[in-house]
Specification:
Elements (H helix, E strand, L loop, with lengths): L17 H4 L8 H9 L1 H9 L5 H7 L14 H12 L7 H10 L3 H25 L6 H8 L2 H34 L8 E2 L9 E2 L1 H16 L1 H28 L13 H12 L7 H5 L7 H30 L10 H8 L3 H35 L18 H17 L2 H28 L7 H27 L3 H20 L17 H15 L3 H36 L18
Antiparallel strand pairs: 1-2
Helix pairs in contact: 3-22, 5-11, 5-14, 5-16, 6-12, 7-12, 7-14, 7-18, 7-21, 8-9, 8-18, 9-10, 9-16, 9-17, 9-18, 9-22, 10-16, 10-17, 11-14, 11-16, 12-21, 15-16, 16-17, 18-21, 18-22, 19-20, 19-21
Membrane topology: Multi-pass membrane protein
Subcellular location: Membrane
Organism: Stylosanthes scabra
C-alpha cells in the first residue's frame, strides 16, 4: 500500500497567481524587468560560468515542490518501467519505415548499432542517477558538471523530446488502431489540403489517447507501475509469438540483397531507429521515487537495455524474413506483414500488442517527462508553478497537464516522419552531452584539480569530440574515404588514451561505469556519428527549435535563475559549504 506523502505546505495546490509563475524580483514590475534586461550581459556571463552541486539538486531544489514524491519503486518496477517505456515506442513504428526506405534487411544491424550506443548512454545515466537520485535526470546531471547554460540547452531539448515523443506515439497509436478497423492507417484522420504536407492529416484519436494515458499517470506512481509490468508481461509473450512465427514463415530470399542501400543506409536507419531505444532515460528520472537507488537503478537500467537490444534485433529479423523489404507497410509493418503471409487473424493480436506497447510507453513517458519538467521548474528555468507536487497523489500534476496539452497540439497536426527526425537528433545530442559530463565528473573536481590537469582534460575532450565530429562529417560527405576515417579513428584513440593516463579526481559513490574513459568516449563518438547520419531537414528543425529556446533563455530564463541562485547564496552565506560556491564557473578552480 502506498503511503501518502508528508505535506510541507498549507497552501492550496490549485493556484494561479502571478507569483506562482514569476516570483523572482526581476519580474515584479515592468521597471524591475527593464532593469534586469539592462544587466543581461553580466547576468548571462554569470549563468555561463555557473555550476550546481549534488547537494543543491538533492536538498535545496526539491523544496520548491512543497510536497515530496513517494519512494515506492523497486528494481522490479524499474526493469519493467524501462521495458514498458522502450518496447512499443519505436519497434512497431519505425522498423517498417526504415527497412523500406533506408536499410532493407540490414535493419537488424541498424538496431544492433543503435542498441550498443544506447547501452553506452544507459551506463552514463546509471552512474549519475545512483550518485544524484533526483527527478531531473540528465538536466540535473548536466547542470552539476557542465554548467547552467548547457543544462538549459539540454532542458529545452528534453522538453522538445517530451512533446515530440508523446505526439509521435499518439499518432502511431492512431495508425495501428485504424489498421485494425480498416486496412488504412489514415482512416480516422482528417485531411486538410490547404495545410502544408506533413501537417495536413489531423488526428483526433491521437489527442484522445494522450489525454487518457497522461490522466492515468497523474493518479499514482505505484499503481501506474503495477499496471505497466502486468501489461508488459503480456507484451513479452506476444513478442515471442512474433519472433517464432516470423522465423517459421521466413524466406531466405527476402534477406537478399542484405545491403540494398549500402552501409550508409544502415547508419542512416540506425540514427532514426534510435527512437526505438528512447525511454530508458525515464527510469533515471524515477530515482527520487526509488527505495534503494544504489541497487535498483543499475539493475533496472543496464539489465533492461541489454535485454531490449536482443529483442529488437530478433523482431527486426523476423519482419524482414516474413516480407520483402519493398513490400513492408510503413505505418503498420507487423500487422500487414501477417496479412501478407496469410495469417489475417494474427494481425489483430499484433496490433493489440502494439497498441498496448505504445500505451505503456505513453504512461511511463508521461511519468518521466513530467519529472524532468518538475526539476527544470525547481531551478526556475521555467515557471516554478510546474514544480509543484500534489499533496494527495505525490505526482507533479501541473507538469503532466502542460506536457499533455502541448503534445496533443503537435500530435494533432504533425506526421510521424517529421516527428521522428526531430526527436532523434534531440535525443542523440543529450546522450552525447551526458557522456561528456561523465568524463568531466571523473576527471575534474573544483577543489582538487590543478589548472594544468584541467587544461589536459579540456584538451583531451576537444580531441575526442573534434575527431568524432570530423569523422562523421567525412562519412556524410563521402570525402577522403577510408583514409580520412582511419586518421580520425587514430586521433580519437590517441585522445582517449591520453585521457586514460590522467589522474582521476573522483570515484563513484556506489556504482560506476567500467572502462572509463573508453566507454564514455565511445559513446560520444557513436552519438555524434548517428547525429551526422540524419537528413539535413532534421538539423534545420533542431537549430530552429534551439534558436527559440535561446531567445526564451535571454529574455526570461537567465534572469529567473540568476535571481534564485543569488538569493540562495544570500540565504546560505553563513553556512559552511560542502563544495565551493556555484559561481566559480564550470572550469575554474
Amino acid at each position: 500500500m502506498e503511503e501518502p506523502p508528508i505535506s510541507t505546505s498549507t497552501r492550496s495546490y490549485w493556484r494561479w497567481s502571478k507569483q506562482d509563475f514569476f516570483p523572482e524580483p526581476s519580474f515584479q514590475s515592468f521597471t524591475t524587468y527593464r532593469t534586469a534586461l539592462s544587466s543581461a550581459c553580466p547576468r548571462l556571463k554569470d549563468r555561463l560560468l555557473s555550476r550546481s552541486s549534488d547537494n543543491n539538486e538533492l536538498k535545496v531544489l526539491p523544496q520548491a515542490s512543497e510536497n515530496p514524491m513517494r519512494r515506492c519503486l523497486t528494481a522490479w518496477d524499474l526493469t519493467w518501467l524501462a521495458f514498458g517505456s522502450v518496447v512499443g515506442s519505436g519497434i512497431f513504428v519505425i522498423t517498417g519505415q526504415e527497412a523500406r526506405s533506408d536499410a532493407g534487411p540490414a535493419i537488424v544491424l541498424s538496431y544492433a548499432i543503435s542498441g550498443f550506443s544506447a547501452l553506452l548512454s544507459a551506463l552514463c545515466y546509471t552512474e549519475f542517477a545512483v550518485d544524484v537520485p533526483v527527478a531531473g535526470g540528465s538536466f540535473s546531471f548536466l547542470r552539476i558538471e557542465l554548467g547552467d547554460f548547457i543544462a538549459f540547452i539540454a532542458a529545452g531539448n528534453i522538453l522538445l523530446e517530451a512533446v515530440v515523443g508523446a505526439a509521435g506515439l499518439g499518432r502511431s497509436w492512431s495508425s495501428y488502431f485504424a489498421s485494425m478497423i480498416k486496412n488504412d492507417s489514415d482512416f480516422f484522420r482528417i485531411r486538410v489540403n490547404s495545410f502544408h504536407e506533413g501537417f495536413n492529416m489531423l488526428d483526433p484519436i491521437a489527442v484522445a489517447v494522450l489525454f487518457i494515458a497522461n490522466g492515468v499517470a497523474m493518479i499514482s506512481t505505484r499503481n501506474t507501475s503495477i499496471l505497466n509490468w502486468l501489461s508488459s508481461i503480456v507484451t513479452t509473450l506476444v513478442i515471442v509469438f512474433i519472433v517464432v512465427v516470423g522465423f517459421v514463415h521466413g524466406k531466405a530470399s527476402n534477406l537478399t540483397p542484405f545491403f540494398p542501400m549500402g552501409m550508409k543506409g544502415v547508419f542512416n536507419a540506425a540514427a532514426v531507429v534510435y527512437w526505438s531505444y528512447t525511454g530508458f532515460d525515464m527510469v533515471a528520472t524515477m530515482a527520487e521515487e526509488t527505495k534503494n537507488p544504489g541497487r535498483d537503478i543499475p539493475i533496472g537500467l543496464v539489465g533492461s537495455m541489454s535485454m531490449i537490444t536482443v529483442i529488437y534485433c530478433l523482431m527486426a529479423l523476423a519482419l524482414v524474413s516474413m516480407v520483402n523489404y519493398t513490400q513492408i507497410d510503413v505505418d503498420a509493418a507487423y500487422s500487414v506483414a501477417f496479412v501478407q503471409i496469410g495469417m489475417k487473424w494474427a494481425k489483430y493480436l499484433v496490433s493489440i500488442c502494439a497498441l498496448k506497447g505504445m500505451t505503456t510507453s505513453l504512461l511511463v513517458g508521461s511519468m518521466g517527462q513530467a519529472r524532468y519538467m518538475t526539476q527544470i521548474a525547481r531551478s526556475h528555468m521555467i515557471p516554478p508553478f510546474f514544480a509543484l507536487v500534489h499533496p494527495k497523489t505525490g505526482t507533479p500534476v501541473n507538469a503532466t497537464l502542460f506536457i499533455t496539452l502541448l503534445s496533443s497540439i503537435v500530435g494533432f497536426f504533425s506526421s510521424l516522419d517529421v516527428l521522428s527526425s526531430v526527436f532523434s537528433i534531440s535525443t542523440l545530442f543529450i546522450f552525447m552531452l551526458m557522456a561528456v559530463a561523465l568524463l568531466v565528473r571523473r576527471y575534474y573536481v573544483r577543489q582538487n584539480t590543478s589548472r594544468e590537469d584541467l587544461t589536459r582534460v579540456l584538451g583531451c575532450l576537444f580531441v575526442i569530440i573534434a575527431s568524432s565530429a570530423v569523422g562523421t562529417a567525412l562519412w556524410s560527405s563521402k570525402k577522403l574515404g577510408w583514409i580520412g576515417y582511419t586518421v580520425c579513428a587514430v586521433v580519437w584513440l590517441l585522445g582517449t588514451l591520453a585521457m586514460s593516463l590522467l589522474p582521476k579526481q573522483r570515484t563513484p559513490k556506489v556504482w560506476g561505469v567500467p572502462l572509463v574513459p573508453w566507454l564514455p568516449s565511445l559513446s560520444i563518438a557513436t552519438n555524434l556519428f548517428l547525429i551526422g547520419s540524419l537528413e539535413p531537414d532534421a538539423f534545420w528543425r533542431f537549430f530552429l527549435c534551439t534558436g527559440f529556446m535561446l531567445l526564451y533563455y535571454i529574455f526570461v530564463g537567465v534572469h529567473a535563475t540568476y535571481d534564485v541562485e543569488h538569493q540562495n547564496r544570500q540565504d546560505f552565506k553563513d553556512v559552511e559549504p560542502t563544495e565551493e560556491p556555484t559561481n566559480n564557473g564550470p572550469f575554474v578552480r
